[in-house]
Amino acid sequence: MTTKKVYIISHSHWDREWYMAYEQHHMRLVALMDDLLHLFKTNPDFHSFHLDGQTIAIDDYLEVRPEKREEVQAAITAGKLKIGPFYILQDDFLISSESNTRNMLVGLEESRKWGDPVMLGYFPDTFGNMGQAPQMMKEGGIEAAAFGRGVKPTGFNNVVINDEKYTSQFSEMWWEGADKSKIFSLLFANWYSNGNEIPVEKEAAQAFWKEKLADAEQFTSTDHILMMNGVDHQPVQMDVTDAIKVANNLYDDYEFIHSSFDEYLEAVMNDVPADLSTVSGELTSQETDGWYTLANTASARIYLKQKNTDVQRQLENITEPLATMAFDVTGEYPHDQLRYAWKLLMQNHPHDSICGCSVDEVHREMITRYDKALEVGKFLASEAVESLTASIDTSLFPTDSKPFVVFNTAGSAKTGTIETEIEWKRLPFSQGVPEELYAQLKNETLPELTVIDAKGQPVTAEILSHEVRFNYDLPKDAFRVPFMAIYVKVRVVVTDMPAVSWESLALTVGQNTTSTLPTIVSEADNRLENEFLHVKVESNGQLTVTDKTTGITYPNVLTYENVGDIANEYIFKQPEGDQAIYAHDFPATTTVAINTTKIGEITLTQTLMIPVSADETLAEEMKAVVEMRQRKAQRSKELAPFTLTTKIRLEQGSRQLKFSTHFDNQMKDHRLRVLFPTNITTDKHYAESIFEVVERPNGVSASWENPTNPQHQHSFVNVQDATHGMTVSNYGLNEYEILADNTTIALTLHRSVGELGDWGYFPTPEAQCMGEQTVAFALAFHGADDQNRTFHDGQNFQIPFTVAQTSVHNGRWAPKAAYLTIDSSAYALTALKRKEHQTEIVTRGFNLSNTAAAPLEIKISGYTPSRCTLIETPHEKPLSAILEPAEINSLLWTKSASVND
């Protein structure tokens, strides 16, 4: 008789914050760790404890018990406490490619400071699994992953598999990424609590194991059976070794052992059958009824997603590139400060944090972390800019001018508007009494001003306003210097500024140039038009947009839709029979806000009458913990005005129509979306995800019951056919849906709900997101083969220009130059940084296509490249001028031998 082996792994899935505030969970973590350290010392039979794959738990414990550091180290060294490989357990889909990367990079590095990490991609409760995980894990040296969601297991009984891409006959399977990387994967088919609270009493143990072994053997492909002894915030089972002894006495044909993932994985991977299933791409529970994909967390507390975008773009796309360039001037790079900022940011990335599905106290604390990380990023960026501008030659400008430098730190050419303030004149407090200095400057008459480039040529610019106000300098070698100054607000449109480049301009005395070109807005017929787009604002507030390149017209663009929502932070549920309310069914007014040859902006105002909330039934259903699908609540009969104010902007040289929508939300239990009909018949679409532009089907599986099909995105979603397409971009708006007509893109702008959801009743009044809200999104079009341009524009929509004033001075760097060049429209840059703790440059990016290879040439003057991994170690792959389909490409740049320091 073959003896089957049952591997019992003690663990506790530690949501750092969730249905209680962080410190409530934190104190329970301290108690758990105290118990573990005691158990390790007193029970030699206790094999080990899996610390949930996240090293931050050690930091959290030692913050309260610093005197326990040596005990923790001893437990890790002895193999009792199993740590790593990640810093936190993130939500894959709601954080950027780089945030996912840094989580692994930092986690592995910090784990190795303590000992050997568990080399398992651990995603026990991630709300879906990213399609590039196999490639990413292999780049980190990780050959296996474990997850609790995303795949439908079918068991041994020859159940028909409707879609083999997203189903497996076993709990073990191979997982293949878009680039064909493949790793071994384990599904917690009976959840990560299938061996929780094992009885010691004989009769109870018999009943427990009869059920649990049958459940596990329904899905396991080998004689190695995994039992997870723990669950969310579970205290360690102190008598688990006694329970294991009882189990061994009950069964002759099973061997029960207290074990670890290292031992289990080695055994099961050696014995898996040859016909093991392969699942591929992103795993988001496609073969289920669709209700519990939890994708609507992408629209819970959208203000968190906007703040997350603020910080990610600041660190990834502004601070790190600027600091990388500044190193060539200063020889210094803020490794420690950036690590501090990244840790603060990643502390907001667990799946119950960034998803917005916790109690209000949790999300209040998140805002503080975001603000702290953002301020660090801004400070480091300003330090880098100060060093850079001091080295850029501005000596060609008039001595009495006020030079300023514009940086494009994005990874592709960028067109957009710069509005900045230039200090024209200052009077230090050392020269007089503040109020007198203020009055003196206030009474000055400014001369006519203009903006010129380094060749002295006028640049079309607008002098918008000026004001006098207090400010101060903080010299690095002296006390603070307060002053009064005149600040002039200037607006300039920049067209096709190259990737990672700068250009010097100056504000100077002179006559501002006037253009003979027509203005963007035709006020007579509410039209905006530039070289590429013709936009008509119809009387009902919808737009008719013509792409002048293809000649195709798109009607009914910018359709606002409002419906009720009676579910929770995880899931959207429209009341039965609820009818959508559309803004175009109410009066609309327009005003022209800006109208020059460079910029046109029309302000559209629409006031809908919508219900003030759900009816009183919802409160009772929530208190009674009625599952959201069973709720009968309707929207209130009481209506109130809900005003949408949308700025519609078109700029010269831009192929992107930009929108900013503001509203003061005083309503509850509702959702607001904006619809973009494409009139393109297709069964698939594309969206930016982690290190890929993923192709997703518009339709759903036969088992899908949810009337909606919400999806995640980063900066854009695209619908196209063989001849043309539409790309909708966003800023921190991570939820979209392709409607049942298969042609309309629906972008979620706001969702108000009143409870956490899940396993009980946790009121979350702040998830109603009351008060002033502003959201930003953009629209672009393409022809048969230039969709990548709109993808780059979508990414750049989230990355502002950086502008800094400087002086007239000599410098070693040209007034206009690019730090690097990228020759590939298919390559999307995600990182330009210095190697962790070192001085080499790291560039990272990915192929915007999962199916087509593309040429790739990147150059950084004075540096020589080699391949490296996501964790910045040497790569086995050689350098190549070809970017393979779905490839994540990381390069390590070493200063060339011929270049002097």
**Structural class based on helices, strands and sheet pairing:** alpha+beta
**Helix run count:** 14
- Order of strands across the biggest sheet? 27-28-29-30-39-36-35-32-33
CATH level-1 class of the largest domain: Alpha Beta
- Poorly predicted regions are none
- Topology, number of strands: 49
Helix % is: 10-25%
For the biggest sheet, the summary is: 9 strands, antiparallel
- Give the radius of gyration: 29 Å
Q: Could you say what the CATH topology of the largest domain is called?
A: 7-stranded beta/alpha barrel
User: How many distinct domains?
Assistant: 5
Name the CATH superfamily assignment of the largest domain. Answer: Glycoside hydrolase 38, N terminal domain
Cα-to-Cα separation, first versus last residue: 71 Å
Domain Glycoside hydrolase family 38 central: 297-370
InterPro entries: Gal_mutarotase_sf_dom (IPR011013), GH38_beta-1 (IPR041509), GH38_C (IPR041147), Glyco_hydro/deAcase_b/a-brl (IPR011330), Glyco_hydro_38_C (IPR011682), Glyco_hydro_38_cen (IPR015341), Glyco_hydro_38_cen_sf (IPR037094), Glyco_hydro_38_N (IPR000602)
Family: Belongs to the glycosyl hydrolase 38 family.
Pfam family, one: Alpha-mann_mid
Describe the protein's architecture and organization:
- The structure is a single chain.
- The chain is of the alpha+beta class.
- The protein folds into 5 domains: 4-280, Alpha-Beta Barrel (7-stranded beta/alpha barrel); 294-391, Substrate Binding Domain Of Dnak, Chain:A, Domain 2, CATH 1.20.1270; 402-513, Immunoglobulin-like (Sandwich); 525-796, Golgi alpha-mannosidase II, domain 4 (Beta-galactosidase, Chain A, domain 5, Distorted Sandwich), CATH 2.70.98; 819-901, Immunoglobulin-like.
- The chain has 14 helices and 49 strands.
- A 9-stranded antiparallel beta sheet has the order 27-28-29-30-39-36-35-32-33, with helices on one face.
- Strand 29 (639-651) and strand 30 form a beta hairpin.
- The termini are far apart.
- The model has no long low-confidence stretch (mean pLDDT 96).
